[in-house]
Design goal:
Largest sheet: 6 strands, antiparallel
Oligomer: single chain
Strand content: 5-15%
Order of helices and strands: HHHHHHHHEEHEHEEEHHEHEEHEEHHEE
Structural class: alpha+beta
Radius of gyration: 45 Å
Number of strands: 13
Number of helices: 16
Distance between the termini: 85 Å
């Protein structure tokens, strides 16, 4: 806990609020470390952040939390060296000009001016001797102070002491070292420098009094010069401090804006909806990856900036942008725009428009933000939500149907025992068949809910597939042989994968039933193939030679309650996908090339385990 009294804490906060301590130069504001940065510093953490730092992005949290610009001190130091060199040249030219007009300066003044000019130009030509070693410094080192400010004070005081002989006044030149000390040295040191200059001027005035000078005139000149130098020192130090604090605030604001822009760009790039920023000329200023994918027939389009006009496929979109700028309003739900690509490909987009300039901001640049969404994705999401709700209702109904259905089946079995006439036996068989059909539908509906991933063991997929195919062929009265309707291709070596045996059986039977439903009666009309794609994947595929699935039907294959048959429940393929999800597998459909007879193919990729399973039974002979 902080035991300091409130007055002391307030005094500390006031000192921190100034941004620069009194014992450092204004360049100290550009160097911030763990010892000088405080949460109470309003220049570092504004008032709205002091209470809670996560109220906004903080400059100190960014990548550039270290020293902002260590070369700032070096640049100002270099500027003063240039001024000293120019002043040295000006002294030589002044003496030459005075000699041209007959005002010959003394030998001491000439020698002193030449020595100062040589030293100043040498420091300007060789700035790396002291500055390059301290590019991160905030104040002049002792050597730099002596080489610059010390030399200036000594030279100008010597010239001032010798000036009566040359009728030149060099007191005004003392402003340069005093100003340099006020900017590049700590405030106490700057004031000490100004005081030392005043004392030197008083000493020179005392020498003048000894030489018979007038007391009033000499002391008044020293008083005025000393007061001016002290005022210049204080003003230079204060103004430099304020400039440093303002520059630091501007840099913090710039860093905050940069971080906010990065955050906005990251969020926009990760959005599923497309985002376009367009001006009146039809030029796209910004476009996220989702928008570039929607504007391209396939793949991803070029990054912004680019021009919307001139692309034939985007004609409707350009008209939509022009209409939006003209009307200055847009429906909240948006409007649909059709993009016409080559080869007859179309894509319908739901376009919502927002404008960056309001009625109260006439000076702002007029831009519009387009929010794009594929209508197919929108419809699929709405359809999925409806199907999910329907699935929950259907599962509840199916659960309630089970008990009455079981009672009907039991009652029908009792009636079948007493059935004597052929007509009665036929009726009981009809009831039994429909009870079985209803039970199957109820079981399918109860499995619609997404399952949780289960911890299944590795199984010999080769033997299981062979066993299921043989069982399915017998139950469907399919004869084995070369002319068989079912063709099974299995690898010679057993393949192991992660799957539950009963779930694999149900998955494969669903795919075989679906393939047989749409296949012809030709040999190998249904083809089962099991291969190891790589060290991590086993692929099981079931293909048929039926009519190719239309494109408008393909996108709904694995959705629940979607069926092309009037008596179908539309749950077979959906249950297959749910079973695959539970075991970390995947199922999909593809249309094989026209050169192959079995073009409709459903394939399942299972996780492979390249380990030997001891005691595996031999795989049954596959159907040819």
């Amino acid at each position: 806990m902080d035991s300091a009294p409130p007055e002391r804490r307030q005094s500390d906060r006031r000192r921190r609020a100034r941004g620069v301590r009194p014992d450092e130069s204004w360049f100290g504001a550009f160097i911030r470390d763990a010892d000088t940065v405080s949460q109470d510093d309003p220049d570092t953490y504004p008032a709205d952040v002091s209470e809670g730092r996560d109220s906004r992005l903080l400059p100190g949290d960014g990548a550039s939390s270290g020293p902002t610009d260590p070369s700032t001190f070096h640049r100002i130091y270099r500027a003063f060296l240039s001024a000293r060199a120019a002043l040295g040249v000006a002294l030589i030219l002044t003496l030459a000009l005075a000699g041209f007009f007959g005002a010959s300066p003394g030998r001491g003044v000439l020698i002193g001016s030449c020595v100062y000019a040589v030293l100043a130009i040498a420091m300007w030509l060789l700035p790396s001797t002291g500055a390059a070693e301290q590019r991160g410094a905030t104040v002049l080192s002792r050597g730099q102070w002596l080489a610059c400010i010390g030399v200036d004070i000594a030279s100008f005081m010597v010239l001032h002491a010798l000036s009566p002989a040359s009728n030149l006044n060099y007191v005004a030149l003392l402003v340069l070292p005093v100003l340099m000390a006020g900017v590049l040295t700590p405030r106490i040191q700057a004031l000490a420098t100004a005081a030392a200059v005043v004392l030197l001027l008083l000493a020179n005035a005392w020498l003048g009094l000894l030489a018979g000078g007038e007391v009033t005139s000499l002391l008044s000149q020293v008083g005025l010069a000393g007061s001016g130098l002290l005022v210049i020192t204080l003003l230079a130090s204060e103004l430099a401090t304020r400039l440093a604090r303002q520059e630091l605030t501007a840099r913090d604001s710039l860093e905050l804006a940069r971080q906010q822009a990065q955050l906005n760009r990251l969020v926009i790039e990760e959005m599923q909806d497309g985002v376009l920023v367009v001006d009146r000329a039809g030029r796209v200023r910004a476009a996220n990856p989702a928008a570039r994918r929607l504007l391209a027939r396939r793949g991803t389009g070029r990054p912004a900036p680019f021009q919307l006009r001139g692309v034939e496929a985007w004609g409707q979109l350009v008209k939509t942008v022009e209409r939006g700028f003209h009307e200055a309003v847009w429906p909240e739900a948006g409007r649909d725009v059709v993009l016409q690509f080559q080869q007859g490909t179309t894509r319908t987009l739901r376009v919502r428009i927002r404008f960056t300039r309001g009625a109260d901001e006439p000076s702002a640049e007029e831009l519009c933000v387009l929010l794009l969404e594929d209508v197919r994705s929108l419809q699929a999401r709405m359809r999925q939500e409806k199907l999910a709700a329907m699935g929950r209702v259907s599962a509840g109904i199916a659960h309630e149907i089970r008990n009455p259905l079981a009672a009907i089946g039991q009652a029908n079995a009792l009636l079948a025992e007493d059935a004597e006439t052929p007509q009665q036996q036929q009726l009981t068989r009809m009831v039994a068949d429909n009870v079985k059909r209803l039970k199957r539908i109820v079981d399918d509906v109860m499995q619609v809910a997404p399952g949780v991933a289960i911890a299944a063991d590795a199984i010999d997929v080769t033997s299981e597939v062979a066993s299921v195919c043989a069982e399915w062929a017998r139950s469907n009265s399919i004869e084995p042989g070369e002319r068989s309707l079912l063709k099974v291709e299995l690898p010679e070596q057993p393949l192991t994968a992660v799957f539950e045996v009963e779930h694999l059986r149900r998955l494969l039977i669903n795919l075989l039933d679906n393939a047989r439903l749409h296949a012809t009666d030709l040999p190998a009309a249904v083809h089962v193939r099991l291969v190891g794609l790589d060290d991590a994947t086993v692929q099981l595929s079931v293909s048929s030679d039926g009519v190719s699935i239309p494109e408008d039907v393909e996108r709904y294959l694995f959705e629940p309650f979607f069926s092309t048959r009037s008596r179908g429940t539309g749950l077979g393929l959906y249950i297959c996908r749910q079973l695959c999800d539970q075991h970390g597998a995947s199922i999909d459909y593809r249309l094989r090339p026209p050169s192959e007879s079995n073009r409709n193919e459903f394939f399942v990729n299972m996780r492979r385990l390249a380990v030997a399973l001891p005691g595996l039974p031999a795989a049954p002979p596959a159907l040819a």
